[in-house]
Specification:
Largest sheet: 8 strands, mixed
Structural class: alpha/beta
Number of helices: 11
Distance between the termini: 20 Å
Order of helices and strands: HHEEEHEHEHEHHHHEHEEEH
CATH superfamily: Alpha/Beta hydrolase fold, catalytic domain
Strand content: 15-25%
Shape: globular
Strand order of the largest sheet: 1-2-4-3-5-6-7-8
CATH topology: Rossmann fold
Radius of gyration: 19 Å
CATH architecture: 3-Layer(aba) Sandwich
Number of domains: 1
CATH class: Alpha Beta
Length: 329
Amino acid sequence: MNQNLLRLNSRLEEARRSLAPCSPPFWAASGHAQTIWGHLLPSPRVQEGGETLRITLEKEAERLQCTYLHGTTKVVVYFFHGLGGTTDATYMQRSALQARALGHHVFLINHRGCGAGAGLAEGPYHSGRSEDLSKVIEYGRARLPGHRHIAIGFSLSANALLLLAAKFRAEILPDAAIAVNAPINLDRASMKLKEGLNRIYDKSFTLELAHYIRKNRPADAGKLARIRDVREFDEALTAPLGGFRDRADYYATCSAKAHLGHISIPTVIITAEDDPFVSVEDYRDAHYSEHCFVHIERHGGHIGYLTKDGLGYSRWLDLALKTYLFTLS
């Protein structure tokens, strides 16, 4: 390990120690409560308008719609949302505010066909679309040369970002990355979605995916009648439309766990032991490159991370992202 990497890892360890553990209020003590309340509770939003961009993908007819917010520092931060999300997702908006508080440039990116980007791309987005993330980084590097470029991905995008950090399916990387609650074993995550209360999330994701297909690929909407869960959706639509042989090929090809040892940029990986459908065991027995800094919280659910704050609560993840962003900048 070179001296620069040793110094950075030392600073990241200091950043970790500066963060108090996520200590949930009694009403959000379980991973399910963290996940659900973290999504439902009110959340601040970015108030500035920003510039609307359409970034061309590998096929010239396909584009992503993004919002760019001009900053004052030499740091650019890219935010990529999770399955069924958009740039309007509460975690996207709050996290962008943390970057803006540091004065950084911000790109908020809708995946293919999501949010305001509906109809702009034929191929579907999925957990392995590292090439799409790379295209956004390429655009940002051309627009803001001489800056430090940091990408942050949540859930599905966190998995894709880890693949990108390992140069899987793309070559143009950010200078650093933060991955939050990545489902690094897609097969296991999809199976866990079928268990107990996780079926609530499975149903929600399936409805969001069905809505996505009706808006972006109406010719394939007839297949939705036979789809009851995410695994069936991935078999019937994600895999064939994404160019994979079948669901098993998609999951095996695009699960980031097998690629973590090849990550070549500083990468902070955040997850929680009580995430309902992302197994912490996959993180504990994974092989990591020296560029990875893994932070596993005991509590947090899936992008919940509600922590006690006096008689109320605060968002642990917001502070963690701001702290790690400051360290990586």
